[in-house]
């Protein structure tokens, strides 16, 4: 899920972070970064807690789960799952409503693909082989921006390009 160059953080980057206030850049807390990544996941797609940690190159599944638990209903919480495609604990029925509405590929209890497990109270999982989100180029740039905010370092600013190079006007 990450690029070769993603996540490299040099002393040059650290110097840029020191001047980020002049551009009004706000450092993201870990839980805010997790929620921003969750917002990027499109309808009908999912990621696991571990996927989010990997995209952020920080924390782990438990930290992501803790952040998601504080996110509220305005976050698409149902799109961030436990390993194996299982919905968040205690929220399977609510999540199922979202999965069915969004057309998220599901697996019935016996593991065969199904769009609508029957009945709703039976165990099911999301089919990760079909539904797992892999960010494209544009989405990955958004993930990189979130990752940079987590580090407290802007990737863009009003006066320069993504690397902070100021252009002459």
Descriptors for this entry?
169 residues; mainly alpha; 3-stranded antiparallel β-sheet; 7 helices; 6% strand; disordered N terminus
Which parts are unreliable, with pLDDT below 50 for 5 consecutive residues or more?
Answer: 1-24, 157-169
Mean pLDDT, nearest integer?
Answer: 77
Tell me the helix content.
Answer: 25-40%
Give Rg in angstroms.
Answer: 18 Å
- Inertia-based shape: globular
Category from helices, strands and their pairing: mainly alpha
- Termini separation (Å)? 37 Å
Q: Write down how many β-strands occur, each being a DSSP E stretch of 2 or more residues.
A: 5
Strand order of the largest sheet: 4-3-5
Our estimate of the beta-strand percent is 5-15%
Number of discrete helical segments:
7
Biggest sheet features = 3 strands, antiparallel
Order of helices and strands: HHEHHEHEEEHH
């Amino acid at each position: 899920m990450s690029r070769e160059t993603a996540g490299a953080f040099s002393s040059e980057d650290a110097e840029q972070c020191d001047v980020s206030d002049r551009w009004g850049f706000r450092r993201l807390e870990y839980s805010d970064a997790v929620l921003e990544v969750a917002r990027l996941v499109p309808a009908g797609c999912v990621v696991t807690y571990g996927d989010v940690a990997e995209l952020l190159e920080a924390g782990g599944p438990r930290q992501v789960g803790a952040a998601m638990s504080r996110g509220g209903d305005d976050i698409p919480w149902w799109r961030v799952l436990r390993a194996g495609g299982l919905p968040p604990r205690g929220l399977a029925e609510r999540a199922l409503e979202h999965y069915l509405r969004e057309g998220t590929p599901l697996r019935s209890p016996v593991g065969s693909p199904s769009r609508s497990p029957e009945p709703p109270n039976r165990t099911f999982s999301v089919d990760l082989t079909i539904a797992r989100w892999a960010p494209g180029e544009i989405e990955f740039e958004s993930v990189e921006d979130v990752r940079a905010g987590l580090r407290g370092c802007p990737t863009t600013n009003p006066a320069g390009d993504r690397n902070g190079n100021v252009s002459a006007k």
